[in-house]
Amino acid sequence: MIRVYYVVEGRENMKKKFATILALAMTMNIGIMNSFAAEEPAWILPKDISREELRSRYGQNVSYWWEAEAYEQAKAWAEAHKGNIPSISDEKARYEAVAKTVVDFLDYDVNYQTPHIAYSVRDGKGVCSDYHALGMALCQACNIPVKMAYVGQIATGLNHDMLVVTINGTDYYSDLTGVETGVYPVLMTSIPKEYTLDGDLSSSLFGGVKEAGSVTDGNSYDINQLDAHSRGNTYVSSVDGGYEIPESVAAQIEQAILRSDWDTANKLMAQYN
Do residues 54 and 116 make contact, with C-beta atoms less than 8 angstroms apart? Predict the structure, then answer.
């Protein structure tokens, strides 16, 4: 039996409708390569921290370890990467240095949509929510007023996020993934025409990092797929456990399935028992 999983980027609340990507998983015996877990991120907080301790440290709205861990990961990353940026007196140049630091650190990778931001910190890869959570943390560490803007793409209904930073008393939108691709300049005086604002701006780093993925289980499909991708493979969930097959083969199988070309799909799968 073939299962096609859709992995959706974005916020955990139900309003998010991010662009989807196909990731192929097969419940069958496939014996190319046993999967092995990569080294876990360097967690900052103990996973068994009590809810009472979390609320004592972070407030009544924080109930789960992964939320507080995401907050600490972003703050620690910002502290480690701020360098001399806070000393830049020109506010525009200071923010441009923040943007460059984030964009230079991260490479866009859709496999980081659901994994916890600690994996983005570990690997230097992420999606828009990772870019802007780290950007928000670094702005705060560099004394730049910043808020998170949640926006919707008008043409598709897909949701996205970007920063709103205050430079010399003026608010600017900044889409760091758009900066990396060259689609947008670092600072924009208004929201891009392709988007509409979705709700209020948020100045809470907790709110920003919570949108950057919550999956922390190293045995989960999401993390196994992420680690397999780093080796050029696709993770396969099997009744006998987890395996990996080359991404090129997984793509061929996926395309065959989408064409309903079961002969080709079965021949490709037969190569791996």
Answer: no
How many other C-beta atoms are found inside a 10 Å radius of the C-beta of residue 47? 9
Type of residue at 15 = K
Q: Are strands 159-167 and 146-153 parallel, antiparallel or unpaired?
A: antiparallel
List the helix and strand counts (H, then E) for the chain: 10, 10
Residues in the chain with pLDDT values less than 70 = 1-38, 273
**Does residue 242 come out as left (phi exceeding 0), alpha (psi in the -120 to 50 range) or beta?**
beta
Residue 273: how many CA atoms within 13 Å on its side-chain side?
A: 12
**Which H or E run contains 103?**
helix 91-105
What is the structure's pLDDT at 157? 81
Return the pLDDT at 33.
44
Predicted local confidence at residue 174, as pLDDT = 96
> pTM of this prediction?
0.80
- b or e along 246-273 (b: 16 or more beta carbons within 10 Å of the residue's beta carbon)? beebbeebbebbeeeeeeebeebbeebe
Helix (H) or strand (E) holding 146: strand 146-153
pLDDT reported for residue 37: 53
Q: Domains of the chain, with CATH numbers?
A: 2-40+219-270 (no CATH), 65-210 (3.10.620.30)
- Is residue 224 within 8 A of residue 115, CB to CB? The reply is no
Q: What is the pLDDT of residue 18?
A: 24
